[in-house]
Amino acid sequence: xxxxxxxxxxxxxxxxxxxxxxxxxxxxxxxxxxxxxxxxxxxxxxxxxxxxxxxxxxxxxxxxxxxxxxxxxxxxxxxxxxxxxxxxxxxxxxxxxxxxxxxxxxxxxxxxxxxxxxxxxxxxxxxxxxxxxxxxxxxxxxxxx
Amino acid sequence: xxxxxxxxxxxxxxxxxxxxxxxxxxxxxxxxxxxxxxxxxxxxxxxxxxxxxxxxxxxxxxxxxxxxxxxxxxxxxxxxxxxxxxxxxxxxxxxxxxxxxxxxxxxxxxxxxxxxxxxxxxxxxxxxxxxxxxxxxxxxxxxxxxxxxxxxxxxxxxxxxxxxxxxxxxxxxxxxxxxxxxxxxxxxxxxxxxxxxxxxxxxxxxxxxxxxxxxxxxxxxxxxxxxxxxxxxxxxxxxxxxxxxxxxxxxxxxxxxxxxxxxxxxxxxxxxxxxxxxxxxxxxxxxxxxxxxxxxxxxxxxxxxxxxxxxxxxxxxxxxxxxxxxxxxxxxxxxxxxxxxxxxxxxxxxxxxxxxxxxxxxxxxxxxxxxxxxxxxxxxxxxxxxxxxxxxxxxxxxxxxxxxxxxxxxxxxxxxxxxxxxxxx
Lengths: 145, 425
What we know:
The complex is a heterodimer.
Chain A: E1 2-10, H1 15-25, E2 30-37, E3 41-48, H2 51-60, E4 64-76, H3 81-91, E5 96-103, E6 109-116, H4 119-128, E7 132-133, H5 136-139
Chain B: H1 3-24, H2 26-35, H3 56-61, E1 75-80, E2 90-94, H4 95-111, E3 119-122, H5 130-142, E4 145-148, H6 154-163, E5 168-171, H7 173-185, E6 197-200, H8 207-217, E7 220-227, E8 232-238, E9 245-247, E10 252-257, E11 270-277, E12 288-297, E13 309-310, E14 315-316, E15 321-323, E16 326-328, H9 330-338, E17 343-354, E18 357-366, H10 375-393, E19 398-402, E20 417-419
Parallel strand pairs in B: 3-4, 3-5, 5-6, 6-7, 17-20, 18-19
Antiparallel strand pairs in B: 1-2, 7-8, 8-9, 9-13, 10-11, 11-12, 12-13, 12-14, 15-16, 17-18
C-alpha cells in the first residue's frame, strides 16, 4: 500500500505552479502526478518521495492536502502488461476509481497506480494472482512522522 | 387635491386608525402602552413621530392572524409574503379592502396611461403572491380587457401578446426582457405589435434596464411599487413622466426616516421608507418599516398630480436581495451550510445577469477534513449543497466549490454578496 498526496486546487492560473514550487522549495521530489479536473476545481494526485512532509509543507502554505491509500503494481513494461492487472481486478468485481502509470527510469517495469474502494481486498487479490506490489519502501522513504 | 385638504383627510384617517388598532389588535395595544403612547393624544400629523414603529418580526410573531383588526368572518381573502426568511406573514383583506385595492391598481394603470380601451396581459403570478390577483382586479376595475395568464410558459405569453392584441403588459422587469428575447427567438418583432406600455414591479431595476426593455419591446416602461405587508402593488406608481413614483397619499402615509436614529428626514433626503395604511381594515399597519431605501422627490411633477413622489428604490437597510422577484437573505445560505458535513459555513454569493435573468452563483468552501480525493464525492457534495440552498431560497442557483480559507475573511461585516447585475443591464 502506498500513500499518495491529494491536493484540492481551484481551477485558476498559477495555482498548480504554486503547489509544485512549494514542494520543490522544500526539497520534495515528485515521481508521478495526475490532475483530475472539473470546470471549477481540480484534484491533483502526486506520488512524492516524502508524502507526510509534503502534506505538512503544503498545508503550511495554505493548500488543502490529504493522504490517500492507493495501490501500486509493478508490471513488465510490455504491450498488454497493464491489461492483465485490470482484468484481474475486474474479475473480482473491483472497480477502479482512477489510475495512472509511470515507467521506472532504472528498470524495465511500469508502475500502475490506482485507487479502489477496498484497497486491502485489491492488494490481496493481486498478490494472490501473482502480481508484484510495490510497497512504500520501494517507491519512497516512509516519513518518520 | 390641494395639499391642505389632503392633510386634513390624512389626519382624520390617522386618528381613526391608531384608535382602531389599539382597540382591536392586542400587539399594538401592548406596544403603545409600553411606549406610553395614548392614541387619543394624536392631534396632528406631526404627532405621528411619537407612534412606535412596526417591523416585519412583529407581523411574523403574530402569524397567522395575530395582526388582523377585524373578525375573520369579515376577511374575504388572504395573501402572504413569500416566507423565504422563515415564517411567512399573512395579510388579510376585507371586501372593502379588495374594493379600495382594485381602485388603487386601476389608478396605477391610469397613471401608466391605460384606459378601458386597453387589453392587459397579467403575467404576475396568481396565488398567494399579491401581484397577479392585485393587478387582475384593478385592471377589471379600470374596465380594461384583462387576460389572466399568470407566470411561466414564455412562448405562450408571446403568442397571446401577439394574437390577442395586448396593449399593456404587467410583469416583473426581468421577465419583460425574457419575453422580448423569446419573441425574437420566435421571429416575432414586438415593435410590430400593438403593445404600448408595461407596468413593471416586484423587483428593483435600473434606468439602463428601462431603456433596454423599452428598446426591446417597443413600450413605455412604468415602475410600480408595493409590498404585501402594506397592501401589494398599488402603493405607489410612476406616471408617464417616468420620474419617481407617486405615493397614493390619501391611502398611505409615507415617511422617510434615518435608519440609525429612526428620526424622520426632510423631503429630498435619503433614508428608510416607512408606511402607514390609512384606510385598510383587515390588517392595517402603522409606521411599518419597509427596509427599502429611497427619498421623497420634493419638486412638483410635470404631470400635475399633487401626490408626492418617491424615487425608485435603490437598496435595502438589511441584507435582503431580490432575485427574480424572490426575497433572499444571504444568512439563509449560512443556515443551510451549517447543516451539511464537508463544507465550511463560508460562502460568497455572486449575482450576474444571464441574458435577462438574474443568475446566482454561490461559492462554498470545502471543509478542511472532507475526503476530496474522489471527484465523484465532490460532485455529490456540490449537488447536495446546490439542492439544499435552492430549496431554502426557492431560487435555483449554481454552486462552485472553492478551496478552504479561499473566501476572503473580514474583520467587520463580511462581504457576502457581490452584485454585478447592474453591469451589462
